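Technical appendix A lists one of the benchmark inputs used to test multi-chain prediction within the project. The record comprises two sequence entries:
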Amino acid sequence: MANQNILIIGGGIAGIEAAKGIADLGYKAILVEKRDRLGGNPDEQQYAALTPDLRDASEALSEMMAPILDHKNVEILYNTLVTDASGSMGDFTVKCISKGKEIEVKAGAVIVATGFTHFDPGRETQKYGYYEHDDVITLTDAEKMLKAHNFVRPSNGEKPKRVCFIQCVGSRDRQIGNEYCSKVCCGISSKQAIEVRQQVPDCKVFIFYIDMRMYGYWENEIYWPAQEKYKVNYVKGMATEIVKKGDSLLVKGEDTTLRRPMEVPMDMVILAVGMEPSEGTKQMAKIFGLKQNKYHFIETTGGPLDTVSTSVPGVFAAGACTGPADLEDSVSMAGLAAMKAITAITKLQAVPA
Amino acid sequence: MALDLSINKYADVPYEEKERLFDEAKADGRWEHVLYGCYECGICVAACPSARFYDFSPRVIAQAVAREDVDLVYTLMNDSVWDCSQCFSCDRCPRQNSPGQIITVLREVAVRNGLQTAKQALEGYGRIIYKIMSTGSQVSPDMLQPNAFPDWGKHVHEISENLEVWRKALPPETLHTIETGWKVDEKTIIELYLIWHMTGVMNMIEEIDEGLFMILVDVMEERLEEAGYDVTFD
């Protein structure tokens, strides 16, 4: 008979949702988290507001995780890292270091939800100078400033008058090796552009892009309002270089639709960094022997019709450990992974021993 | 020659003045219904007959105003807006922008503020403006003169000589006219003059062509007075 526990690795959006689903259906969820709190990237990186609805991120996260914090079917192991795994579907034995001590967790199925990490702009092949210019920041840096309602130039603490976003930093780039679109950055940049305009109304905001990719309702919920209500200036054309000129930054690129070269002064530049597999994701792939794609995300095996099954039976993956995913994707995948994990252990149970 | 989008062309005009004119356009009551945001997709250019013959792009108009590019808007207001034939084929925009109506508003701002380029663009239209504004009709039979329409051949001689007879051959009595395209009712003309007066059109004419303005004022004030209206244009 299969072990009736389901192990979830990673306490971000997908992990929380999976644990909730499993517990509510009456099964035991063991949630392993490397930090001392849940919430994943949105919590760790102090997101200000969620995309696309601009809801306060802390408030939404607290509300989301509340039901599992004292759920009788959920056991949360904080400060815990998975170090080794053996066994197979119905009978996994997973070794962890929990608060410095080695422990062993038994589970019938496993859901990996170890997420992504933001692209390190030090690796970009343009000349944006993230580590060189104080006023060149990333989406995550901007998120923290917006959350604190303190959106100012890092170089001098003054409110900026001209800010631009540069899209696709670390994404859609063969030279870097990340050929994929990171999916969420267009929406997040547009969301932040709205927030900048709300917090610093005199500031002009530009977004330099290759394609704006805001599918479904993100179009009318973020893109159109950013452009129409908040007068965010979308310019099709990528910047290739940022140089310091006097007190400000000079962004060089092409305004493609107006067919003219562009050298525009900016007070701040925000690099829309994409997603890469987190260290934990790469580790879990190795420990569980999961097939990875060429970008080292965990490969799901069912194409578009099964987004959570991996190359190892009984191990499922949810959220951004499988590739770029937004909150909606992560929550949907987590629900599916919970359902498939339960199905895996109950099917085994039904087989006579 | 490519569309000239140079901002240096009007570098001597202060930015504040360009901004003032743009703000006047944005304050127009129609503005929010003719400009939303621009995808810069070019569907308006694809539909535009003028764009096939001139270096004219309704997309550039829409994107310049959507981006609030004050310098570029000023350049276009002095130049490109006069290449539009106001057919509104561009109204098929997926964002529901109307580059044609944006142009209407920009032209009106240009005229109201007496921009030199607007005067130049409208220079050749004095006679037509006079005819429409004073009579309510644009093309009239007496315009059919051989020297005006040589390409019509000798036929035009024959017609121009017996205009009155030809016009009487038309069944509706309202078309038995020579100096106007049809019989314009006295009440219609008075209403028309009052519209010109009340909507500020006469102020625009004054900015653009003072001579034309004075001639029109003479004609209109006299007829309005006869009809019992005490109206002065100044």
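The helical segments of chain A are 13-24, 40-44, 57-69, 139-147, 185-199, 218-228, 279-288, 327-350. Chain A touches chain B at residues 224, 227-228, 231, 233-236, 257-260 (CB under 8 Å). Comparable benchmark entries are summarised in Table A2.
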